[in-house]
Design brief:
By secondary structure, the protein is α+β, with helices and mostly antiparallel strands. It folds into two domains: about 100 residues, Arc Repressor Mutant, subunit A; about 70 residues, Alpha-Beta Plaits. The protein contains seven helices and six strands. Helix 1 packs across helix 3 and helix 6 runs antiparallel to helix 7. It starts with a helix and ends in a 5-residue tail after the last strand. About 5% of the residues have low confidence.
Length: about 190
């Protein structure tokens, strides 16, 4: 699935932060306490983020590396509430906000690899989500489409792919446990 430049940037930034988290875990678990402050490692500084952006452009064969384009991208993501830029010990750090993490979660679902089930069964999702949770319901439907679900009825969706685990994560993420049922069915006649 094709991602927009802003989505690719957010996804790459998230992966960078994830790598740094794994580094911290290994340092702490190996009892290597040689760094000054944990905040120096967790968030990438603005220059490291810019280098990631330029590498991303190289991969897409966009030769232009303009400083203004990078600044515009950061400002765009900040204005939309996906990023914050903070000063930490004389360095500017880029931090993904909770709203940005929601966006990263959507990107992760878009990128989820879909494999057909070997047993030829279908994953079925039944839900009855109340009107007061309309935003969560609409987002849930949209993300079901990304996972490969097709609408059988308004609140009944089916999928021939092996997507049980991402579907369960989706339900947990939106806190819809009480309103959603998952079934595994042998046959679906559309």
């Amino acid at each position: 699935m094709r991602l927009r430049l802003t989505e690719k940037f957010l996804w790459n930034l998230y992966k960078l932060i994830e790598k740094k988290d794994k580094l911290i875990d290994s340092l702490i678990s190996n009892k290597l306490y040689g760094f000054k402050g944990i905040e120096e490692i967790i968030w990438p500084d603005i220059y490291q983020t810019r280098d990631y952006y330029w590498d991303m452009l190289k991969k897409e064969k966009r030769a232009k590396r303009k400083k203004q384009d990078f600044i515009r991208l950061i400002r765009y993501l900040k204005d939309r509430g996906y990023l914050n830029v903070k000063d930490l010990k004389n360095r500017k750090a880029v931090i993904i906000t909770p709203k940005g993490m929601k966006r990263v979660f959507n990107i992760k679902i878009k990128l989820e690899e879909k494999k057909k089930r070997i047993d030829k069964k279908w994953q079925m999702v039944l839900f009855d989500i109340p009107e007061k949770k309309r935003k969560a319901r609409d987002s849930f439907r949209k993300q079901l489409k990304y996972l490969g679900y097709k609408r059988l009825q308004r609140s009944i969706w089916v999928c021939p792919y092996n997507v049980l685990e991402p579907t369960q994560q989706l339900i947990k993420y939106h806190k819809l446990d009480r309103f959603v049922r998952l079934l595994l069915v042998e046959e679906v006649k559309v």
